[in-house]
Amino acid sequence: MITKITIAWGMLGITLTTAFAQVATTDPIKGSQYVNEQYVEGTVYYADKSMTAPLRYNAFQDVMEYQQNGKPLVLDAKNITRVKLGDEIYITSPYDAKGKQKVGFFVLLDSGEMMLLAKKEIVYTAAMKGRALDGSDLPAQYKPVPDHYYYKLGEGAPKEVDNLKELLADLPDNQSAIAEFAKKEKISTKKEKDLVALAKRYNQLAQN
Fold it and tell me: Is the pLDDT score of 39 beyond 90?
């Protein structure tokens, strides 16, 4: 169950929404909805202003939380251009989330003509009776899943990286050079470091 209470005021006139997400269960739940449970001093950037605040990213709900007077508040993703949180930069963008259009947060891995993005996700797994190897019960838990990778060209919406062939076909230029680079470097779309290398190479060529 998710309880939301919208309030019409907030720092710098930003509309904030309190959000408390509870899965309908009386069992204890292992794990966390957050990439990092602790709030970290970060910076939120808007088109014409910025603010610093204690922040943390809720990857289960895909929301950025801000703390005010000890209460968690949710920033409106539609009004944000980017967020600096620790060593990571998050951007916001509309995208297709399993057939539904929504605005979500992405970790920026590389930028230029092509943006390479990582989508962090945490899922909920219900408790299961007698399913452990020793026959005991498995507890309910929040569990991180491997990052999903997206690329964004120009003003277009982020597209998930499914395979190298489709990614190369979607590039507006330098397809042959990037294909040759991918073959030479044995690029795998399952490895973040390979995708970062591919994006950096494409952005280098785009500058020439």
Answer: yes
Concatenated DSSP letters of 19-40: EEE--S-SS-EES-SBSSSS-E
Residue 180: is its pLDDT beyond 90? yes
Tokens representing residue 173 in the block = 């230029």
Pairing verdict, β 140-153 and 29-30: parallel
Q: Say if CB 11 and CB 51 are below 8 A apart.
A: yes
Backbone phi, psi, residue 184, to 5°: -65, -40
Residue 15 has pLDDT above 50, yes or no: no
Per-domain residue ranges of the chain: 2-160, 162-208
The pair of structure tokens assigned to 204 is 């280098």
Token pair 């590039």: residue: 171
* Alpha carbon distance 55, 57 (integer Å): 7
Amino acid occupying residue 32: S
Which tens digits make up the pLDDT trace of 51-68? 999 999 999 999 999 988
CA distance 53 to 85: 10
Residue 35: pLDDT band (50, 70, 90) is: very high
Is a pLDDT exceeding 80 seen at residue 152? yes
Burial of 122 (0-12, 13-18, 19+ CB in 10 A): buried
- The C-alpha atoms of residue 197 and residue 186 are separated, in whole angstroms, by 11
Helix or strand holding residue 182 (H, E): helix 175-184
